Amino acid sequence: MNKNRLIKILGTCFAVIAIVAALLTIPLTLVGKNRFRVSIETLISESLGYELVVAGDIDLSFFPRFEFLVEDLRLKNPEFPQELASARTAVISVDIWEFAENRLRVDELLLRGVHINQRTEADGRNIWHSPQLLDSFGAGSDATELQQLDTGTTDEGYISVGRILLEDSSVDFQDVTRGSNYSLRDVTFEILEANNNGADFAAEGLATLALFSAAHAGEILVPFNFGAELAVDSRARQATIHELRLGIAPMLAAANATVDWQQGALEMRGTVEASRFDLSDFLSGFELSGTDLSGFGLPGIELNGVDPKYTDSAISTLLSPAPASFNFGFNLDQTGFTIPDFDATLGTASIDADFKRLSATASNSPNLNYSIRAETLDLSFLDTKRFAFWQQIALGFIAGRHGNTTASIDIEGVTGARSSVGELQMFISTEGNVQNIELQPLAVWGGEIGGLLRVENPPAGEQVIELEARLRRVDFNSFSEFLTPESLSNAHSLSSFGSSFSGKLSADLALSASGDEASMIADSVAGDITFDLRDNTVNIGLIKQVFSSISALSPVGGSTENWTDSTSFNQLGGFITFTDGMDEPHRVNLIMDNLEINGSGSIDIVSGDFDYRLAFTLLQNARVEPLFINDAHRGKPWPVNCSANLSAPVSQFCSPNFAGVRELFASPTSSQTSSQTLD
Please, what is the average pLDDT of the chain? Predict the structure, then answer.
C-alpha cells in the first residue's frame, strides 16, 4: 500500500512508542541485566523487525521509584546498512501498580543524545520499512479482524506518560530520489501528560533547521520553536490538533487539524494561518551570512564594490519591509495532498493559488497541478544580492521535476527597487521525461521577451535542452546589467564590454544542448543567435585602435583621427552559429554599416579565455560609411586576433595580425586578395 511521507514520519513515532511500551511490559522476573538485554533485543526483532543493540550499561532502581537507566542504544534495520537511530541514555520511570489494571503509566521518559536517520533510497524504499512494521499499519489483516471480533474492542489498553523529554538530539532527513537533504539540530522536545484515551495534552519544543543549499554552496541554519495542544484517541483511531504553533521569527503560524487512521489509511484535514508579519525580515533568517559564502551565496563570485559594512550579512539592513500574511486549508490522504484555496497578501497586493499533488500509483507517476494568480507585486525588498540568492530556489521549483505537472503563473505585474515588468504569464507542463516551460511575451527593460524552454531527461543518458527565445527592443544596458550586475561581477564579467554598447536590442535564439552542468551545456550547445541593435551608440575605441595599428603599416598612410570616440550605426546586427559547443570553433558575424567583422573562434566559460580569428573589413559601396580612412583600406579583410580573458580591459581584447596585414598591403588588388582570403 502506498504511504506518503507523513505516514512514514508518524509510523516512525508510533514505532518508538511501541518500543517503549514493549520494554515496559516485560515481566519483572526478567529484570536481570543480561536477561533484560536479550529479552528486549529479541522482542524488538520479532515485533518490529529491527536489530536493537544495548551496547552500554543497564541500571535498575526501585527507590524512590521504579526506574530503568539504559546507556548507548542503537537501532538498525537489517535490510539497510545505515543505522536508524541511537541514544546516549534513556531513563524510564514506571508506575508498576498500573499494570494490574491493564494500564501502562510511565511517570517520565527522558532521552538524551538521540540521533535519528530518516532516509529514502534511490529505489524509493525507506530505511525504516520492515515487513513487520508495514504489517502493523496495514489495512485490517485477518488476524486483527478476528481479534476484534473475539474481544469486541479495537484497543489493548490505556497508556499515559506524565512527561516525555528529548534533549541534545538531532534528526537527519535524506531523500535520494529527490536529492533533498536537511536536518533538525539541537532538538529539545517536551510532552506533558501524553495519553491515548482522547484527553488533551500539550507539547512544546525548540530546534534548528539546517539546510544545505547546493545552489549557494553553503548551509542555512533556521532556529524555530513550536507548540501544540492535541488529543489522541486510539480506540477511535483519531487525533485532533487543536492548535499547532510554529514560530520562525518574525512569523508565527497556527494550524488546526484532525487526523484519522482507519484500516491503515491516514487522512488529515485542517487549516493554517499566519497573521501579518515582515516577509523581508523572515527571509533574512534563511540567507547565508557573509562569513560563510563568496558573493552572497553564489559560487565563485567576489564581493567587488560591496560596502564592507554589509559583508556581515547576506542582504542590506536598509531594505524596505514587506508586510505579508497567508491562510489556507488542506487535505492529505492516500490519494495525495491538496490545498484548494491559498490566500495571501504582500503589501497591498492579493495572491490566490491552488495546489494538488497526487501520489504515485503502480501505473502512474506523481501528478502535480498548481496555479498562482496575483495582483501587481511590490518586490522592492529584493535588492540585487537578495534577488540573486533567491532566484535559484524559485527557478528550481519552477523547473524542478515533480512527476507529471500542469501549472500556470499569472501575475499582473512586478515592481522592483530598480526596474519593473508587465504582466507575467508562464505555463509549465511535464509529461514523462519531457518538460516545457513557456513564457508569454513579457514587457521588461523597455521592450519584451518570450520563449519556450524544452528539457528532456531520458531514463539513460544526459538531459537534452532546447531553447527558442525572442527579445524585442529591450534596453541593452538594462539587459546586460541583469546578466552581470555590478555588485555581483565576477572574474569573467562582461560589464566593461557591455558598457561599450547602448541601444534597443532584438534577438532570436534557437539553441540546443545537453548535460546537467553549465560547463557541459556550454560545451555542447548548437544552433543560431541572430541580433540587431537599433538606436545604438557604440564606443569604437577598440576598432580605432585596431585600424590605427593597421594604418601604421600602410605604405600610403591613413588616419583614424577623424573618427569619433563613439558613434551610431544605421545597421548594427549579426549572428553567431554554434555547431559543437562554445569551446569549439564557431562562426561569428557583425555588420556595423560599412564595417563587417567575420570569423570564428571559441570561448571557455569556466576560465573566461577566448580565442577568435577575425577579419575586419571596411566594405565598399556601403550605403552609409561612418568609418573611412582611404581606398587602400577598403575591401580588404584585415586579419585580427582576439585572444584574451574576459577579465582583461577591452583595449586588450584584439590586435591585428601584423604579418597578414603586411601581405595584404603588398597584394596586387584588393578584390583579388579579398576573394582569396575569404576562400
Answer: 80
What distance in Å separates the CA atoms of residue 329 and residue 336, rounded to the nearest whole number? 14
**How far apart (Å, rounded) are the C-alpha atoms in residues 338 and 330?**
6
Q: How many CB atoms lie within 10 A of CB 444?
A: 20
Write the pLDDT tens digit of every residue in 197-250: 888 999 999 999 888 776 666 778 889 999 999 898 878 888 888 888 999 989
pLDDT of residue 496: 61
* Residue whose entry in the numeric block shows the C-alpha cell 495582483: 375
* Axis-axis angle for helices 5-24, 33-48 (nearest 10): 150
CA distances from 5 to 11, 124, 320, 353, 513 (A): 10, 11, 38, 23, 35
Q: What is the pLDDT of residue 372?
A: 95
* AA identity, residue 253: A
- Which backbone phi and psi does 487 adopt, to 5 degrees? -70, -15
Closest by Cα among 504, 402, 388, 521 to 462: 521
Give every CB contact of residue 137 below 8 A, 6+ residues apart in sequence: 3, 7, 11, 14, 261, 264
Torsion 146-148-151-152 (CA) sign: negative
pLDDT in tens, 607-638: 889 999 999 999 988 888 888 888 888 889 99
Q: Which residues contact 164 (CB under 8 A, 6 or more apart)?
A: 108, 109, 111, 189, 190, 191, 194
Query: Of residues 374 and 151, which shows the higher confidence score?
Result: 374
Q: What is the pLDDT at residue 38? A: 78
C-alpha–C-alpha distance, residues 648 and 608, integer Å:
10
pLDDT for the residue numbered 214? 64
Three-state DSSP class for 54? strand
Q: What is the pLDDT of residues 487-505, one digit of tens each?
A: 434 445 555 666 788 999 9
d(CA 36, CA 156): 23
DSSP assignment letter at 280: H
Burial label, 309 (beta-carbon count in 10 A; 0-12, 13-18, 19+): exposed
95, with CB counted inside 10 A (0-12, 13-18, 19+), is: middle
> Does residue 49 come out as left (phi exceeding 0), alpha (psi in the -120 to 50 range) or beta?
left
Q: Are 465 and 454 in contact (CB under 8 A)?
A: yes
Alpha carbon of 271 to those of 189, 243, 349, 488: distances in Å? Answer: 24, 10, 22, 41
Q: Is the pLDDT of residue 313 over 70?
A: no
Q: Which is nearest to 379 in space by CA: 371, 370, 391?
A: 391
| pLDDT computed for residue 290 by the predictor | 44
- Nearest residue to 104 (alpha-carbon basis) of 183, 166, 18, 169: 18
pLDDT the model gives residue 128: 87
